[in-house]
Amino acid sequence: MSGLRIATVRLLLATVYGAIKLVTRVDERKVVFLGRRMDRLPLDFRLIIEELQRRDPEVKVAVISKFVKGDRRETFAFLPVLLKSLYHLATSKVCVLDSYWPAVSMLTHRRSLVVYQIWHSIGKIKQSGRQTVGRGQGWAEHVAQGMRMHDGYDYVVAGGPIWNSHYCAAFGVVPDQLLNIGLPRADYLIHEKERIATRIAETYPELMTKPIVLYVPTFRRAESASGALKLASAIDLDRFNLVIKKHETDSLLLPPEKHHVCPEFTGTQMLTVADYVITDYSSIALEAALIDVKTYYFLYDYDHYFESNGVNIDLDLEMPGCVFRTPAELRMALADDYPVETLRQYKEKFLFDDPGHSTTDLVDHIVEVGELCIR
What we know:
Layout: H1 3-23, E1 27-35, H2 43-55, E2 60-65, H3 72-91, E3 92-97, H4 102-106, E4 114-117, H5 141-146, E5 155-158, H6 164-171, E6 178-180, H7 184-203, E7 212-215, H8 227-232, E8 241-244, H9 267-270, E9 276-279, H10 284-290, E10 294-298, H11 302-308, H12 315-318, E11 323-324, H13 327-334, H14 340-350, H15 358-368
Parallel strand pairs: 1-2, 1-3, 3-4, 4-5, 5-6, 7-8, 7-9, 9-10, 10-11
Helix pairs in contact: 1-3, 2-15, 7-15
């Protein structure tokens, strides 16, 4: 997107937004949730809304969740959605985001609006946001500047404190703006694990006949990733059931070998029945650590990914005996004993303290510091 086009869109949004603010008032009991990652209600949004409404059924909630690829056609198709969000931003006391939302960062809001960026991970294994500007997996520098990438946040919900410098670098905030409380999905995994696992077993009883290997790679922008093809050729399918959960916006190449995709359940939900999870740079590894799922890292494209996106930690150093570059190495690891002490140390170092009440902690902050009015 050219600088002129960005400036034109910003002027249009600012003009419309200014007019809306002139003729509307803030509802002190209203929260708007905005996301660009999927066309349905995200799990973290749902859990926050449920807790808000448990405390006060009359809290007003507006949700706009719309998947946007980012190409030119999709950008213009997204414009009506952006315009719709302006009314809710003008009339809400609190805004909660799980991704970058242009109208939040590009415009000037009422002083009363409090913005929470919860992102969609409980750590920062891979680089994102401002960290990736100018790289192959990130935004061009002129686009990031023109769209004021990740400006305007009052608070960012983070994982463990060890990630704080990376959150600050990704979102342009200072440590005092970070809330090291984890995401609501952590509560979901911890408290609902058995119930979710039962639902999966009832839906897919054939999965329960062998140990389950769950492959969940990270999202790669504008790339057709081949990790699943490489992995499937190495898995002993006589011994394991392979489940592949690709990012719904990704173009992951699926293998011809027999595997399951389990479309009724998300990768997070599938963790509850997995004996092993295999990922690369995805924060689902931290979700797996929450419930002690044995985790391996398949970094077949490490050099390329390091250059095109970047990572924040040295996985070889932090997970010795669990990081592999070739399918053959991974196959051998699955045939051997898992280094559980390595996972224990990783969990202790990289997760936030005392997990299990992230949702209530966040809603407490929204009410007490965000000053959302509830009964």
